[in-house]
């Protein structure tokens, strides 16, 4: 009898531990119809990842890595509704020539982006100076005049020694503040701060909520950094990177904008990093496959995809309905189009405003028109223009942050050869909050444009020979805040996009993917450890009872 009582007590204790620990991939025991239905440790755990961008690809890659290290068997399927891998990191072909890819989305990563840098090296990808490194002259335009110019601009313009003569010690103070802030953030990669189950808690632990709680303008003022350096240089950087001004973007993202040392990009497109991650993960990748409905039944997730013509990297067509143990939503919920059957979510992410960014690519033999920027005839014209606001202009609404300049940046990326005319042409990229008009292009190039820009062709004889516009929901408005989205929306349903209101970059999305991958593997291993302990206790108690009999 004593042995039987110990057996009952042990089961009660283990049951309580299960409830207290709370780190479960799914609610098997709590939702089972039969007491005999237990966690089956003999089968590979099925994991679905929704989204093949930076976060989804990183999740898949690190899931395989961490699972292999712990001896866990997993089966991963990645669903991507687009026809390509990379999410907002993607390229288009100049002149419609696949040999001339141009970054349409995320263009660069930097030296401190450990995951992207190390991955590109591990996969043998050609990382070189960012595509705007070749810019000859950079200018900052406030709608009336160029408030700053520098030769050898591009992403190499943040050169403290060249800025001190004009702005005094403000560049030095900015660099010190940036290093201090980014140093705190980089602890998220390391034990004991990695992995983290709450981004809000970790940000608080590291003292980063002190920086996210205030605007960039407030943070800089508190550190004795003000105009004209803050408005001429730092605000030009927040605008080109995030389409936002210092009076609205939070302090942490402001400092991230100034961490541009060692800017680089992958020849042929940064998306190749994420494509390589997916291939290395051995996951089944289903492109052109939109997840429509997610339901939960007996601790498992039932996922339905929209019926369409599906192309997959692995040549395996998706089923209309599949069952998974764990799901990772690696895309903003508000744009996913997913319906959740029944109310099983314990947390629903807030819908937050994203910057509606227009990216316009075009080629032309013409340089930028100096007269538009109020330059004297014969004066050197910058090849890349960043923008800021004039001193008397402060938009109250972040959505109108471009102000009177009307755009955030114009970059001359590089020189190309027109395959039809064989003339050398400049490849331009414009970031703006509104669609670019023929009148605007006429003004900045000093040559007439057709009323319909879509009629432009390589051999049409127009001032522009190739034209490609695109509209993105590119990144959130990084408004000050001290809490961030939960990583688990329900037991076993993980969410990565809460990172974007903290820091929105390819690297930080990849970091969140790596973090979620570690949490999933830890959760599975914890269940296995407890189940093995239970089986051991049961076997020992049964043996003791046999001896007593």
Describe this structure in words.
By secondary structure, the chain is α/β, with parallel strands linked by helices. The chain has three domains: 2-86 and 269-350 and 482-547, FAD/NAD(P)-binding domain (3-Layer(bba) Sandwich), CATH 3.50.50; 135-157 and 353-476, Polyamine Oxidase, Chain A, domain 2 (Alpha-Beta Complex); 168-262, no CATH class. 32% of the residues lie in helices and 21% in strands. The strands form five sheets. It has a seven-stranded mixed beta sheet, covered by helices on one side. α1 (2-21) runs antiparallel to α14 and α3 (54-70) packs parallel to α14 (506-548). The chain is globular. Mean pLDDT is 87; it is low at 1-39 and 310-318.
Q: What would you call the structural class?
A: alpha/beta
Number of helices: 14
Head-to-tail CA distance between termini: 10 Å
Which strand-content bin applies to the residues? 15-25%
**How many individual β-strands?**
22
Overall mean pLDDT stands at 87
CATH class descriptor of the largest domain:
Alpha Beta
How can the largest sheet be summarized? 7 strands, mixed
- From the alpha carbons, calculate the radius of gyration and give it in angstroms: 27 Å
Low-confidence residue ranges: 1-39, 310-318
Which bin fits the share of residues in helices? 25-40%
CATH architectural designation of the largest domain? 3-Layer(bba) Sandwich
Tally of structural domains:
3
Strand order of the largest sheet: 12-9-2-1-14-22-21
Give the CA-based shape: globular
Q: Remind me, CATH topology of the largest domain? A: FAD/NAD(P)-binding domain
Query: Which homologous superfamily in CATH is the superfamily of the largest domain?
Result: FAD/NAD(P)-binding domain
GO molecular function: prenylcysteine oxidase activity
Domain Prenylcysteine lyase: 152-527
Keywords: FAD, Flavoprotein, Glycoprotein, Oxidoreductase, Signal
Protein name: Chloride ion pump-associated 55 kDa
């Amino acid at each position: 009898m004593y042995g039987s009582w110990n057996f009952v007590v042990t089961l009660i204790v283990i049951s309580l531990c299960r409830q207290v620990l709370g780190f479960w991939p799914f609610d098997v025991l709590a939702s089972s119809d039969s007491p005999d239905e237990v966690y089956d440790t003999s089968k590979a755990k099925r994991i679905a990842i929704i989204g093949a961008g930076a976060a989804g690809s990183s999740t898949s890659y690190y899931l395989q890595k961490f699972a292999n290290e712990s001896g866990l068997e997993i089966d991963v399927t990645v669903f991507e509704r687009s026809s390509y891998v990379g999410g907002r990191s993607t390229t288009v072909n100049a002149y419609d020539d696949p040999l001339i890819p141009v970054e349409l989305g995320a263009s660069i990563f930097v030296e401190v982006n450990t995951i992207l840098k190390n991955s590109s090296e591990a996969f043998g990808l050609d990382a070189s100076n960012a595509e705007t490194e070749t810019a000859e002259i950079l200018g900052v335009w406030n709608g009336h005049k160029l408030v700053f110019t520098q030769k050898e601009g591009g992403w190499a313009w943040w050169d403290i020694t060249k800025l001190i003569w004009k702005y005094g010690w403000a560049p030095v103070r900015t660099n010190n503040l940036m290093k201090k802030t980014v140093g705190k953030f980089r602890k998220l990669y390391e034990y004991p701060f990695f992995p983290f189950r709450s981004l809000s808690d970790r940000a608080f632990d590291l003292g980063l909520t002190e920086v996210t709680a205030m605007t960039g303008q407030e943070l800089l003022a508190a550190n004795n950094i003000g105009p004209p350096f803050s408005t001429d240089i730092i605000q030009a950087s927040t605008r080109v990177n995030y389409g936002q001004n210092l009076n609205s973007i939070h302090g942490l993202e402001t400092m991230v904008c100034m961490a541009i040392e060692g800017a680089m990009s992958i020849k042929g497109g940064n998306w190749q990093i994420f494509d390589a991650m997916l291939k290395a993960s051995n996951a089944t990748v289903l492109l052109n496959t939109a997840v429509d409905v997610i339901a939960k039944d007996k601790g498992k997730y039932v996922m339905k995809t929209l019926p369409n013509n599906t192309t997959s990297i692995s040549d395996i067509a998706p089923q209309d309905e599949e069952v998974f143990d764990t799901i990772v939503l690696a895309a903003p919920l508000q744009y996913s189009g997913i319906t959740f059957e029944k109310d099983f979510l314990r947390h629903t992410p807030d819908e937050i405003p994203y910057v509606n960014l227009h990216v316009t690519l075009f080629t032309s033999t013409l340089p930028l028109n100096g007269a538009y920027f109020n330059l004297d005839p014969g004066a050197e014209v910058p090849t890349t223009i960043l923008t800021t606001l004039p001193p008397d202009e402060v938009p109250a609404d972040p959505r109108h942050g471009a102000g009177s300049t009307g755009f955030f940046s114009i970059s001359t990326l590089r020189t190309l050869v027109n395959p039809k005319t064989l003339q050398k042409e400049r490849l331009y990229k414009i970031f703006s909050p509104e669609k670019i008009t023929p009148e605007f292009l006429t003004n900045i190039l000093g040559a007439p444009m057709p009323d319909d820009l879509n009629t432009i062709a390589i051999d049409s004889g127009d001032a522009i020979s190739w034209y490609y516009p695109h509209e993105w929901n590119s990144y959130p408005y990084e408004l000050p805040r001290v809490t961030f989205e939960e990583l688990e929306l329900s037991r076993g349903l993980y969410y990565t996009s809460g990172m974007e209101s903290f820091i929105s970059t390819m690297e930080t999305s990849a970091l969140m993917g790596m973090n979620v991958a570690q949490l999933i593997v830890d959760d599975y291993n914890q269940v296995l450890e407890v189940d093995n302990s239970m089986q051991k206790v049961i076997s020992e108690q049964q043996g003791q009872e046999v001896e007593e009999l």
